Amino acid sequence: xxxLQATEKIWMNGEFVDWADATVHVxxxxxxxxxxxxxxxxxxxxxxxTAIFRLGDHIQRLHDSARLLRMTIxxxxxDLRKASLELVGVNKLPSCYVRPIAFYGYGSLGVxxxxxxxxxxxxxxxxxxxxxxxGMTRGVRVKISxxxxxxxxxxxxxxxxxxxxxxxxxxxxxxxxGGYEEAILLTEKGYIADxxxxxxxxxxxxxxxxxxxxxGILHGITRNTVMELAVSLGYEVKVENLTRADLYLADEAFMxxxxxxxxxxxxxxxxxxGDPGPVTLALQRAYLDIVQGRxxxxxxxxxxxxxxxxxx
Length: 312
Fold this sequence. Notes:
By secondary structure, the chain is α+β, with helices and mostly antiparallel strands. Helices cover 27% and strands 29% of the residues. The longest helix is centred in the first third of the chain and has 14 residues, at 55-68.
């Protein structure tokens, strides 16, 4: 995971501001209570220029996430879509990570936000392989966490809400202290849920399996992409509850997410799964072909950036 690299501009509440000036008061509601929603989006360098992958779907999910928190974002999906494209162009980044966020701002500081304004911002910065280049080629070592994934009737996991990620942070910190790259969380019933920031897949006898949304996982856009892609490549895809034993005995395993893309899993709890297998490699290769504009069949998922000049 690379350090955050400053770029020239951040879009904040309808204006482009210098990176260093994109600040908020320490009393904002979102800081104290995690009352915000965000997205992770990637822009890729392609032969036709910089393209953002599934931008509209991500911004729609941002709005859906806010609605589940009874938050109204003061900018439409179209407003934020255009702002994201313009911001990447302003910062002249051939490829980057894009982070829209909306949160309750400065006002009252009780648990309910009351009349607090909703602040909205978009950042973008260069970001390579989330779990490292070696992780993309050889796979990563993961640990099943002692922390349980919060169930969906406790918090709405269909919302990519800021506060929910404390659960993930505890799990991945625990894994890192044990020398692992990622964590996998189980449900209260012991089924596989997801990683700290990725969805989980296994391959057994040529069939691709992934846990159902009822396990309290985010409705992953990359998860959806890979499931569609797997079917198009002729693989059978099953959405079923999985146990830790299913992971230990899998022929292949991998995780998906905007940041992680398609990252193979090499070991789980020191059970060796092995080098990335043929299904994982085929899906990883096909996914990268799509996002980097080398497969025109999925061209509708790419929105191209037009270089723009920041407004004063």
